[in-house]
Amino acid sequence: MLKIAIVGATGIVGQQAIVSLLGHPWFQITKLVASERSATKKYIDALRDANGSIRWWCPEELPADIANMVVEEAASFDPTSVDVIFSTMDAGPAKELEPKYAKTTPVISTASAFRYEPDTPILVGGVNMDHAALLAVQQKNRGWKGFISPKSNCTIAGLVVSLKPILDNFGVKQVVATSLQAMSGAGRTPGLSAMDMMENVVPYIAGEEPKVETEPQKILGKLAGDKIVNAPFGITATCTRVPVIDGHLVVAFVQTEKPCTPEDVKKVMTEYGKDFAELHLPSSPAHLIDVTDDPFRPQPRVDRDKGGGMTVTVGRIRKDPILENGIKYVCLAHNTKLGAAKGALQTAEYLVKNFLKLV
Amino acid sequence: MLKIAIVGATGIVGQQAIVSLLGHPWFQITKLVASERSATKKYIDALRDANGSIRWWCPEELPADIANMVVEEAASFDPTSVDVIFSTMDAGPAKELEPKYAKTTPVISTASAFRYEPDTPILVGGVNMDHAALLAVQQKNRGWKGFISPKSNCTIAGLVVSLKPILDNFGVKQVVATSLQAMSGAGRTPGLSAMDMMENVVPYIAGEEPKVETEPQKILGKLAGDKIVNAPFGITATCTRVPVIDGHLVVAFVQTEKPCTPEDVKKVMTEYGKDFAELHLPSSPAHLIDVTDDPFRPQPRVDRDKGGGMTVTVGRIRKDPILENGIKYVCLAHNTKLGAAKGALQTAEYLVKNFLKLV
Amino acid sequence: MLKIAIVGATGIVGQQAIVSLLGHPWFQITKLVASERSATKKYIDALRDANGSIRWWCPEELPADIANMVVEEAASFDPTSVDVIFSTMDAGPAKELEPKYAKTTPVISTASAFRYEPDTPILVGGVNMDHAALLAVQQKNRGWKGFISPKSNCTIAGLVVSLKPILDNFGVKQVVATSLQAMSGAGRTPGLSAMDMMENVVPYIAGEEPKVETEPQKILGKLAGDKIVNAPFGITATCTRVPVIDGHLVVAFVQTEKPCTPEDVKKVMTEYGKDFAELHLPSSPAHLIDVTDDPFRPQPRVDRDKGGGMTVTVGRIRKDPILENGIKYVCLAHNTKLGAAKGALQTAEYLVKNFLKLV
Amino acid sequence: MLKIAIVGATGIVGQQAIVSLLGHPWFQITKLVASERSATKKYIDALRDANGSIRWWCPEELPADIANMVVEEAASFDPTSVDVIFSTMDAGPAKELEPKYAKTTPVISTASAFRYEPDTPILVGGVNMDHAALLAVQQKNRGWKGFISPKSNCTIAGLVVSLKPILDNFGVKQVVATSLQAMSGAGRTPGLSAMDMMENVVPYIAGEEPKVETEPQKILGKLAGDKIVNAPFGITATCTRVPVIDGHLVVAFVQTEKPCTPEDVKKVMTEYGKDFAELHLPSSPAHLIDVTDDPFRPQPRVDRDKGGGMTVTVGRIRKDPILENGIKYVCLAHNTKLGAAKGALQTAEYLVKNFLKLV
After folding, report:
1. Which whole number is the average pLDDT over C265-294?
2. Measured between alpha carbons, how far is C312 from C331 in angstroms, rounded to an integer?
3. Is residue D322 less than 8 Å (CB to CB) from chain C?
4. Which of A294, A296, A305 sits opposite D59 (nearest CB)?
């Protein structure tokens, strides 16, 4: 078993990381790491708020052995005490601490701090595994034994999976996207106000649209030597928040380079990702994409847990009535599974198996 | 006072029509008309369901004098007994009965039955009042003393208002729209299932997208002699249902003919509709469009009631990062006020004052 | 016109106080007062948050003249500059500042700071107006020209109104109550978390049950000389939070001293409060209680706005199957209207007319 | 493996029964049975609505082998073709068909049709397993080889589990209960209206209170010879519907015969059900009751799935301030797991193992 530390363990993404790793066949959580405020406390005590309530937000129960682990402090944490570090810190501390850890130890990160570095790939399971080679460039550039491998923004997690087979088969020229995002993406402390979200939609998420409009081109880009050449298409997005707990829905209007029918798109999506599935990574679903013919689907509450929250559901694929080579569809991904901790874990699994060759 | 009948009075739109007309300075409800099932009953008794509950759905209280009116039957209703008919029937009965009424009496309709007839305008307050002249063509064509004037689809009510000043000033080339529609648009008997809508989004509304993709071009078209020449732009839409009671939000990506800045768009929207406002129609708001600089707005629950539910709120106007001459924004309209009965009433007010010259 | 200051004007209750006073026939808002943080700013600027959003939470629009008033600081505010002070501060500052103001000026307060003082009544419109005489005792005891008149806890606002006619006619022996409380009662900064309240119930509200279990006995007590003798019945309560915006629902199991039928209770509730209504206070509803026969009512969203949010709706009155002299019912009151600012305003109206005799 | 038929298989409870039985170690679903409308169709086709949508409502995926089973008709179904029948029919058809099946075959039923027959127990897992002996009386009385064993009303499922250890240790004199019930209890066709439930509470559930007020006394009664002597305490209830998907919360005010402290109650609840757990029935949880010290719990969305939806969570145990020997608490049970199909399955497991001795 590989020893894994979760840094940022008390936050909502850290909690999801814990849940993702429960009973994992390759990884064992041996360290829980957090800020000074939590350090030296038992994990369960670090979760208590001022009212004494335990702020454990996952539906899964917190196992007693995890609850009783003593939290270490991130600033003084010894990265060589584990084989892999799962960083779920906020961007600020991530910027400072992840490079320190990476000197010696592989860091899988859910933070955005290093996503836009030229020598850093944004790996998405099954989409751009060849980009993992860029981590060797990163190691060389920076003189690290470890590396930093960040996950993508959660909103595009489903979009890039759905775009990949279209890009490979028909080319992508342009994407117009509107997201209807779940509330869990806003975190928990304090997160969104119930009075703001009840029976309402908020048509803005600070800082989100620039990520949606730029990350996919890098993820879907081509590795050329020691850098990635971005995929040459444009994306424009409007990101909204809807009263849903989990599951980001993206309404996409895609123009392809070559003409294709909705049936063509359905076919390439359905067949997509078989080789990745055959790696049999523990967190991978049997199908990366599930295409539904029910026009009323995908729905966040109903479809988000498909494939353990790792399958993207695509529906309403149809010909666009006005856009040249236009295809319209709706895609859904679980933002706190595929789009966050579990998606990062899937990448970790790929890297320890195929890049580090540790399992 | 002009005598007005509400036909389809027991349905949700009929109820909203009643509310819109309470205390109206020009119109007095003198007849409530509905299907055979309700006819000869007191209105309040016609609203009772099997459990004895009174299915009056408006937040406003049902006045006693309306409650006690005896409902007449639509099939045998004498249209000459009133000056104006406010039809809120479903499309089926509207198709059959509205022409009978229109032989003698003006019919303002919320039904879609006649929207697509070449000699029938789809009037939207302040947007295309000149199209009212087509009603004279309709009268002549069909030998009617009255006419049928249908309102638009509720989803586009806000979109066309927001597009009109753009079209007039910069031209419109193309619109990509995603709607986040409120549940009240689905009616009440039975309407949507609570289990389907709770903490969820349904990405499809049967029959909606074709209306959104075609009605605006007619509404924003030019009257040329005895017909309307559609505005020459394309619209593509995806319509979704969100857990909101009232207020349809439309996320719009608009390409204009001439370049314009967000400030330009804000300016023409803010100045728009002053001449219409100066008609001082009883149901018209002081501002047809309210442009907000708060990026978190418009929000359905918070902004829908602006201007008595008749003002369209536009926010997040910004330059599109990839579309040529592209502008992005979000607009909100109250689907059961501007988008339904009260919007139709505003049209009725315009017609009795400026077309029929009865007030 | 009487000059009124709102102290605590930027908070949610202060905002509701402003709305309650718009267009008031007797009071004119001449001062807006708040903490140091807001002082010297224009009111609308004091409402801006870090994102620049204006945190005005009322559905009613903020009038321009109010928006442009310059906020004064509570600590240095001169109470003699107004005729009446409307205090919507939190309990802490209220404890300190209200007595300073009361030396010279009547203070109507929504805070709990002075509710439990023996020389201070908790006035509820139409329920215990005779308790106003205790304010003269308070003035004498404390050497004040003004006074402090606090409103009740919002949860019991509807309960005490519904209990009063039962108490007067049949006596009350015991009350078992479960509240289903709206989220607005928890305030706005930060208020409740959307993730906690979505599709959920929280069965606890810190500090609420002791208030529900003790305030009604004082409010429904008898003024005897210079003190109130509490009504001699017990209340036990469980208070829960439900995903509703406004409107506290209380499920009550009441045992009376004398036997009575549901019809008896309906009759005394329906007839209740006529003398108070005849005072024609501007904020008073035509009926203090509206008894509904529809078993599915009262419902918070549907019934809360009755009588301008000042009418209590009672439904499901029925004989208890096991409790001696037991009656069961459900009552609903608008927690931010009757239960907060507007309820306090109604008391202010009574006091300026009947106690201070200023109008 | 025992062969089991699900009768009423297309309804929501039937679907939950299917899910409960997936991968079951003792039972294999060999027949799906429904009304004439569904008979002879493949199961998945029987689920399709007029729009072509598959009305499968469980979050778990429908397995292909179940989807492809051909549905048989309930009226002509041969009960001898299976070992056990799981009836999830409505009360009407249950009244007629269950006795026909019971002539030859054990029937576990979620319907209320036979609950109140003197020779029929209402078995609740771990609470009254000794009542199973009454099934032998039923068989003798009616000349049946099989039997009918109905589950309890879903609202009381958690209440009776929480009352049992109190009754055994301290006696129960009286219960005042208010339920906050989830929407899934109202079924799916059509179920509740989204417009009625959004941001609202409905304080009435037709037919529910009489069941809550009478079933517990039978379930908690004593088997004496060939009949059950009801437990001698009274219950009064108000049942409300809240916007929650699953999980019925009951607010209880209990008066015991002997005095007891909250700590006493916590202790007997925590220790309760160990002997039943030791039977290791496949659907039984490790703990029948989980007592939480967090005052903000139990919450429906957060706690309903504990123990696979079979554990009752009790919180807020405290001394009542006015009731003699009074204890207050809140309890939560998953209404469509413990309170419906999975609860019935747990009973089926007990009966095949300990009454029929088939495993």
Report:
1. 96
2. 7
3. yes
4. A305
Residues on chain A touching C57 (C-beta within 8 angstroms) = 195
Q: Is residue B298 within 8 angstroms of chain A, CB to CB? A: yes
pLDDT value at residue C120: 98
**In this structure, are residues D131 and D123 in contact, taking their beta carbons and an 8 Å threshold?**
yes
Q: What is the pLDDT of residue B65?
A: 96
| Nearest residue in A to C55, CA atom | A196
Specify the CATH number for the domain of residue A262: 3.30.360.10
Specify whether the CB–CB gap between D108 and D85 falls below 8 A. yes
**What is the length of chain B?**
359
ipTM of this complex prediction, to 2 decimal places: 0.95
DSSP letter at A132 equals G
The partner residue sitting opposite B199, judged by closest CB among C51, C199, C302, is C199
**Are C86 and C162 part of one and the same domain?**
no
Q: Give the separation between CA C270 and CA C292, rounded to whole angstroms.
A: 10
- CATH number of residue B350's parent domain: 3.40.50.720
Q: Do D200 and C299 touch (CB under 8 A)?
A: yes
Catalytic residue among D131, D248, D287, D334: D248
Q: What are the tokens at D103?
A: 């002539």
Q: Given C190, C198, C243, which is nearest A183 (Cβ)?
A: C198
Query: Within an 8 Å CB–CB cutoff, is residue D296 touching chain C?
Result: yes
Q: Does A58 touch chain B (CB under 8 A)?
A: no
- Give dist(CA D105, CA D94) in Å, integer: 14
Q: Is A59 in Cβ contact with D302 (below 8 Å)?
A: yes
Residue D56: name the closest of D12, D23, D86, D88 by CA: D12
What stretch of H or E contains A284? none
Taking contacts as CB-CB distances below 8 angstroms, the residues of chain D near A53 are 294-297
Closest-CA distance, C201 to chain D, in angstroms, reads 6
The total domain count for chain B is 2
Same domain, C94 and C183: no
DSSP-derived 3-state class of residue D354: helix
Q: How far is B174 from chain D (nearest CA, A)?
A: 31
What residues make up the domain containing D232?
Answer: 156-333
- Over chain A (359 residues), the average pLDDT of each successive run of 10 is 97 95 97 96 94 86 95 98 97 96 98 96 97 98 98 96 98 98 88 95 96 98 96 98 98 98 98 96 97 95 96 98 98 96 97 95
Q: Which residues pair with B224 in a beta bridge?
A: B227
The two beta strands, A312-319 and A326-333, are: antiparallel
Q: Are residues D250 and D345 in the same domain?
A: no
A154 catalytic per annotation: yes
D187 & D292 share domain: yes
d(C-alpha D218, C-alpha B267), whole Å: 73
pLDDT per position as a tens digit, D74-109: 999 999 999 999 999 999 999 999 999 999 999 999
Q: Between D51, D190, D199, which is nearest B193 by CB?
A: D190
Against chain A, the chains showing at least 3 CB pairs within 8 Å are B, C, D
- CB contacts of B213 in chain A (<8 Å) are 321-322
Please, where are the H alpha helices in C103-249? 134-142, 156-170, 194-197, 208-219
Containing B149, the helix (H) or strand (E) segment is: strand B147-150
Chain A residue with Cα closest to D197: A199
Helix or strand run (H / E) with residue B175: strand B172-181
- For residue A17 the two structure tokens come to 């990381």
Chain D residues touching residue B196 (CB < 8 angstroms): 194
Q: Which residues of chain B have pLDDT under 70?
A: none
Model confidence pTM above 0.80: yes
Do both D307 and D238 map to the same domain? yes
Among the listed residues A290, A277, A73, A45, the one whose alpha carbon sits nearest the alpha carbon of residue A162: A290
Same-domain pairing of D169 and D83: no
Task: State how far residue B305 is from chain A, nearest Cα, in angstroms.
Answer: 13
Pairing of strands C84-87, C2-7: parallel
